[in-house]
Design a protein that fits this description.
By secondary structure, the chain is of the alpha+beta class. It folds into two domains: 206 residues, Up-down Bundle (Alpha-lytic protease prodomain-like); 76 residues, 2-Layer Sandwich (Alpha-Beta Plaits). 64% of the residues lie in helices and 11% in strands. The chain has nine helices and four strands, in the order βααααααααββαβ. It has a four-stranded mixed β-sheet with strand order 1-4-3-2. α9 links the parallel β3 and β4.
Amino acid sequence: MAHAHTETAAGRNATRLAIVLGLTSAYMLVELVAGLVTGSLALLADAGHMLADVAGLALALVSIKLAALPATPRRTYGYHRIEILAAVSNAILLFGVSFYILYEAYQRFRSPPEVSSLPMLAVATVGLGVNLVGMYLLRDAAHESLNMKGAYLELLADSITSVGVIVSAVIMLTTQWYYADPLLSAAIGVFILPRTWGLLRDAVNVLLEGTPSDVNLASVRAAIEAVPGVAGVHDLHAWSLTSGVNALSAHVVVAGDTGRGDVRRAIQALLLTSFKLHHITIQTEHPGDEACEAHL
């Protein structure tokens, strides 16, 4: 078996995630105090939204630390999958936030409360700045890790929320049309849902050991079959341990008197250098051996 031991994508960005968690937590406290002082229900509700995000970011950070623990005889791949479980948890949390926003928007549309618009505008503007800084810090990492993608989506949802609050505050401040608040809130809830579904779908694909989206299994098969001495490939499987850490196993039929060790080493070198694979297991066989194998 060949291994390319690398730090996970989320692990490489743990420091940035910790900075974002600190900024988000500080802003949540500011928003909570501002909501209590001004009596703004919108700010208090958004502080609750931010509390959910802080919990999600903290969960993502803790999962990175746990995923770095060494493998054991009971968990031979270590704790990499904890990052995926965190991504699933964050997706569920985002779904809850989205549906809460939609429910709250419905309630406010039925009876829109009077809102203290000027403090709401000031706090939301600060919040937008905090979220944009956080998104900048996690932008690149979101393309490498589902865990980091979940954190990034939470910040994106917060940014959209802040923009909505700012627009709503300006409208209410200038026109006293308080229906702006529930209408924009509903738009925010609808905006979050499809992106959260994509995160959940990708995470579940990892848990089901589906083929990673960045691995073209047909190309991998063709590359293996092109190695001199290979007569065929079967039982080819690729899956992810966590984001950016892909594994592969295959049974390779070796033609004639070709050295099985040479073929195996050639295939492993090819897959390590040409494809995004880190754990590779190749079983070499003679023609006809596959007939004796047991399959589920």
